[in-house]
Design brief:
Layout: H1 28-34, H2 60-67, H3 82-95, E1 99-103, H4 106-117, E2 123-127, H5 132-141, E3 148-152, H6 157-163, E4 168-174, H7 186-196, E5 199-203, E6 221-225, E7 239-243, H8 245-259, H9 265-276, H10 278-298, E8 302-306, H11 316-322, E9 334-339, H12 343-351, E10 357-358, E11 368-370, H13 382-387, E12 394-398, H14 404-415
Parallel strand pairs: 2-3, 2-4, 4-5, 5-6, 10-11
Antiparallel strand pairs: 1-7, 6-7, 8-9, 9-12, 11-12
The structure holds pyridoxal-5'-phosphate.
Amino acid sequence: MNPFWPTVPKRVFHLADAAMTSEDNLDFDTLAVRAGQHRSEFGENSEGLYLTSSFVHESAAMAAERFANRAPGNVYSRFTNPTVDAFGERLAALEGAEACVATSSGMAAVLTCAMALLKAGDHVICSNAVFGSVITLFEKNLGRFGVATTFVSPADVAAWRAAVRPNTRMLFVETPSNPTMELSDIAALKEVAAAAGAWLVVDNCFCTPAIQRPIELGADIVIHSATKFLDGQGRVLGGAVLGKREVMMGEVYAFLRTAGPSMSAFNAWVILKGLETLSIRMREQSRRALALAHWLERHPRVGRVLHPGLASHPQHALARRQQSAGGEFLGGAVVSFEVKGAREEAWRVVDNCRVISVTANVGDTKSTITHPASTTHGRISPEARAAAGIGEGLLRVSVGLESVADIEADLARGLG
Ligand SMILES: *Cc1c(COP(=O)(O)O)cnc(C)c1O
């Protein structure tokens, strides 16, 4: 039995299932290309793109059965769509999850997970180094509906344990953190969550299942912004919530179906094709990122360099343990570093880039650079930025597939 194969029978498909079964024991790379495909009667080799809002029924009786969820089959693309299901099934296979609910963006995935699993009066513990909008969502938006959130340092397990209250229902973490590449020990946080009777939710956006599989390490739920490395070429928005079938097809799917933060079939198709090259992209982009990190460490105008693959990373041993999902330690494609000086010196590096794109997105085959203190983290207070280790000299590069020499030359120009 392949552990990555979803044990789930198809919920909605009435088309013939793929010929492969879980008994085939297929590897990650094979599943990335093959899992989730259900050929139509036309025998297409590439996955079909079902651009349709609704689906027709053989009879009034069958329509009634499907609306009542008593018969398999698609009804409406806010609920299910064959292309979106193919994406979800493939990603579930890669994460080793039983099931996946695909959403319109990464933030829609976080919202869907929270709305499905929390209620007024519940308490959440969240890393203080998660994606900025996640902090706003928990603090401001969910705060208005009576959900209280405590923010703690991602690496300090004792702080997580100390923050537990009787009504704690969820621990939310992103590892490695953005942009300072701090790691959280997923297995240790699982112990805290289990003792509290709370869900452990891990945003696996930066590593992807090619590097880190949180469910194997104890996470209950995995969140993705599929916009980043899963698409991999900066084209479309998407997100996903993954976990146990009962939970995904229960509360999580029920919220999606009612509220409608659903993934579009077109976006699902694009990201599905992105998954086919996930593992070679992550391997190659991680290798380039580490080479760049070593070069930056030797540069006289550069201070701290942050990448889990560096021996100088304070959690390098944890990184090797936790980010070797394929048996091979990769470390990821994001490198942050401090330019000696302040904002002016950091901006000079950005302004002298001719190859690297000046944009805050990550996970593209095109390398990107951003100055977190004035962009992604520009709206939080200078004190909070300092506490999170985001100084005025810090730059974050998401390394793509250009030659490392060209990326180095691009950065060298502004470093002087
Ligand atoms: C981008 C990002 C998100 C939000 O995803 P969107 O697709 O932009 O909504 C969440 N978590 C992390 C780690 C991200 O990088």
